């Protein structure tokens, strides 16, 4: 389902914004590997704040529950270790990510996740025209069951995980591919205007054998395929170089470890990226 692991996260908080004094009171993080949730990190959090009455009414989280919970300085190092460098998913991700950064910075910690996927934005782009994209109504429309109480971290994270699996399945069915979905593709889709997403996805999922390309001789000798490491860690084999007939631009044809074939413009395949202040090549050749 997914080419690399993703971590779905949900926070319950004492307020709407860390800038206004809001703190995390509960966290759930669910790791999706392939097509299933494989690990969970769930904890109440004692951030030493008073829980407003309306928060207790909304979430069921009481002052006594939080007072008895492990402190933030214990929870967040473990949470960041659980997330690692996976892509992060949240419903209305800007809310959860700002609390993740705020609580981490209080402790001098640095989150290492590689990109953020907002399931609200993603659902709008893959399933446009639905009556609501709030988590509960959206789940009901898509017939995703809501287990547990809404506005509790684990229940909300589980529904968001189920939503992500549903959206990934929609992409595979719509574009008739069984190839796992690269989480970084979904990060890119999130950044697009909704109107541009369908064209982008169509181009991305167009199989190379159906693309109008002229194949050049193999760029490496047969029996010794050149391998490249993607800057996110995946290993790919170079198949050949080709020419896009539409504009005569050069493209790279390459094979993923699962056997799926992909193409990228040559300039994109070899482009340099700036990651955490360092310049890295998108695909780096492997030697030996």
Automatic annotation (TrEMBL):
Query: Can you give the residue ranges of the Exonuclease domain?
Result: 5-173
Q: What is its EC number?
A: 2.7.7.7
Q: What class of enzyme is it?
A: transferase
Q: Which reaction does it catalyse?
A: DNA(n) + a 2'-deoxyribonucleoside 5'-triphosphate = DNA(n+1) + diphosphate
Top-rank taxon of the source lineage equals: Bacteria
The record ties this protein, via PANTHER family, to:
DNA POLYMERASE III SUBUNIT EPSILON
Record-given protein name: DNA-directed DNA polymerase
Q: Which species is listed as the source?
A: Undibacterium griseum
């Amino acid at each position: 389902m997914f080419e690399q692991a993703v971590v779905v996260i949900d926070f319950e908080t004492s307020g709407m914004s860390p800038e206004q004094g809001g703190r995390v009171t509960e966290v759930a993080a669910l790791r999706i590997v392939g097509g299933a949730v494989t690990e969970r990190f769930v904890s109440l959090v004692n951030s030493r704040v008073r829980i407003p009455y309306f928060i207790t009414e909304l979430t069921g989280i009481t002052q006594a529950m939080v007072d008895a919970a492990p402190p933030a300085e214990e929870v967040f190092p473990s949470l960041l270790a659980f997330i690692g460098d996976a892509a992060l998913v949240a419903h209305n991700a800007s809310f959860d990510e700002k609390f993740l950064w705020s609580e981490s910075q209080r402790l001098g910690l640095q989150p290492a996740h590689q990109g953020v996927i907002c399931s609200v934005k993603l659902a709008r782009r893959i399933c446009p025209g639905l009556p609501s994209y709030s988590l509960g109504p959206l789940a009901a429309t898509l017939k995703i069951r809501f287990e547990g109480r809404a506005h509790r971290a684990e229940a909300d994270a589980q529904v968001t995980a189920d939503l992500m699996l549903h959206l990934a399945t929609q992409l595979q069915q719509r574009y008739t591919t069984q190839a796992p979905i690269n989480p970084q593709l979904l990060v890119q889709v999130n950044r697009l205007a909704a109107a541009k997403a369908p064209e982008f996805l169509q181009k991305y999922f167009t199989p190379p054998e159906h693309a109008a390309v002229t194949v050049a001789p193999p760029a490496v000798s047969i029996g010794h395929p050149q391998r490249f490491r993607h800057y996110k860690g995946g290993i790919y084999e170079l198949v050949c170089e080709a020419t896009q007939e539409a504009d005569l631009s050069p493209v790279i044809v390459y094979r993923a470890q699962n056997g799926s074939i992909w193409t990228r413009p040559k300039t994109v395949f070899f482009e340099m990226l700036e990651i955490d202040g360092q310049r890295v090549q998108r695909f780096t050749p492997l030697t030996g």
